[in-house]
Design goal:
Number of strands: 12
Helix content: 25-40%
Largest sheet: 5 strands, antiparallel
Structural class: alpha+beta
CATH topology of one domain: Uridine Diphospho-n-acetylenolpyruvylglucosamine Reductase, domain 3
Number of helices: 10
Distance between the termini: 47 Å
Radius of gyration: 22 Å
Order of helices and strands: HHHHEEHEEHEHEEHEEHHEEE
CATH class of one domain: Alpha Beta
Strand order of the largest sheet: 8-9-12-11-10
CATH architecture of one domain: 2-Layer Sandwich
Length: about 280
C-alpha cells in the first residue's frame, strides 16, 4: 500500500498565505518563512512600517487566546444589580467606561452587561429606572478562546465585550473588541485618553504582562523591583535587541534574570512591544 501523500491530498494553505503569495509573489511553506519574506519586503520598500506591524499582528492573533490579553478580574469595575440609580451613575462616572458587567449574589453570578449610555438615558426620570429594562445578555467565553475566532464573533453578534471564565466557571477577566484590535493596529487612544497617562506596562493576568518596547529601564526596574542594567540603551526594547545581537522577529524569546520576554511586534528596524512572563 502506498502511504505517500500526493500534492492533491495536501490541505490547502491558510488564507493569509494564499493572499500574500498572490500579492507579493512569495514562495512560502511555513509561518517563519512568511515572516522572513515580509521583513525582506519591508527592507525593499514594498511594505511600510505600519503595514508590516499590522500583518504581524494578524499572524499574532491566530496563535493567541483570550487569557493572553484579558483585563484581569482584579482590574474590572463591576456593578451590583441592587445598587440605586445614583450609585450606578456615580460608579460609571468615576471609572468612565462604556459598559460594565453586572452581578447579583457574587461576582461569579453575573446577570448581564450594562451600557453607560443606556443608564444615562434615565437622567431626569430616575423614578422610572429599572435595571432589567436595559440589562443586556452577557457574552461568555472560555480562557482558551482563540482571538481570531473571537474577533469574528464580535463582528457577527455586534457585541463589544466578552466575560472570560475559567474551567470552574469563575470570572477570570473581560476582553473587549478594542483589546483584540489593538493586537493588530497597536494601542487605540480615544478622546478621553491622555498621552501622559499612557501605561507602558499592562498586566493581563498574574505574572503576565505586555510591555511597550520604549519603556525606560528605570521605570521597568521600579515596577518589578528589578535590577536590569545596560550602559548602551535606555529602554527595555534596546536591552532585548542588544542581548540578541540583532533586530528580532515576532515570536522570538529572550530570558533575562527572572523575566521571559517574547517579541510580539517589530517593524524591521526596532522592537515595538513585548510579551512578558515573570518567574516562569
Amino acid at each position: 500500500m502506498n502511504l505517500k501523500t500526493s500534492k492533491a491530498d495536501k490541505p490547502p494553505r491558510p488564507w493569509w498565505q494564499r493572499w500574500l503569495k498572490q500579492r507579493y509573489s512569495l514562495c512560502i511553506d511555513s509561518r517563519q518563512e512568511l515572516i522572513d519574506e515580509l521583513h525582506n519586503a519591508h527592507k525593499k520598500g514594498l511594505l511600510k512600517n505600519d503595514s508590516l506591524g499590522m500583518i504581524e499582528g494578524v499572524l499574532q492573533i491566530e496563535k493567541r487566546e483570550a487569557r493572553d490579553i484579558m483585563i484581569p478580574r482584579s482590574n474590572i469595575t463591576f456593578l451590583h444589580r441592587d445598587d440605586s440609580f445614583e450609585e450606578l451613575v456615580k460608579k460609571a462616572m468615576q471609572s468612565r467606561h462604556s459598559r460594565y458587567p453586572v452581578y447579583d449574589e457574587n461576582r461569579d453570578d453575573f446577570d448581564g452587561i450594562l451600557l453607560t449610555k443606556d443608564l444615562l438615558g434615565y437622567v431626569g426620570r430616575e423614578t422610572s429606572f429599572d435595571i432589567d429594562d436595559i440589562l443586556l445578555p452577557a457574552y461568555v467565553i472560555p480562557e482558551s478562546k482563540q482571538l481570531q475566532s473571537l474577533l469574528t464573533e464580535f463582528r457577527k453578534t455586534r457585541k463589544h465585550m466578552a466575560i472570560v471564565v475559567n474551567e470552574y466557571s469563575s470570572v477570570s477577566g473581560i476582553v473587549t473588541i478594542e483589546d483584540v484590535l489593538e493586537q493588530i493596529v497597536g494601542d487605540i487612544d480615544d478622546e478621553h485618553d491622555f498621552v501622559d497617562d499612557k501605561t507602558n506596562i499592562k498586566q493581563h493576568a498574574e505574572n503576565h504582562y505586555t510591555v511597550d518596547a520604549l519603556t525606560p529601564i528605570e521605570e521597568f526596574n521600579a515596577y518589578f523591583n528589578a535590577n536590569l542594567k545596560n550602559d548602551l540603551f535606555d529602554t527595555i526594547g534596546g536591552i532585548v535587541m542588544n542581548k540578541l545581537g540583532r533586530i528580532p522577529k515576532q515570536g522570538e524569546k529572550l530570558r533575562l534574570d527572572n523575566f521571559l520576554f517574547q517579541v510580539t511586534r517589530s517593524d524591521g528596524r526596532r522592537i515595538l512591544s513585548l510579551d512578558l512572563l515573570v518567574g516562569s
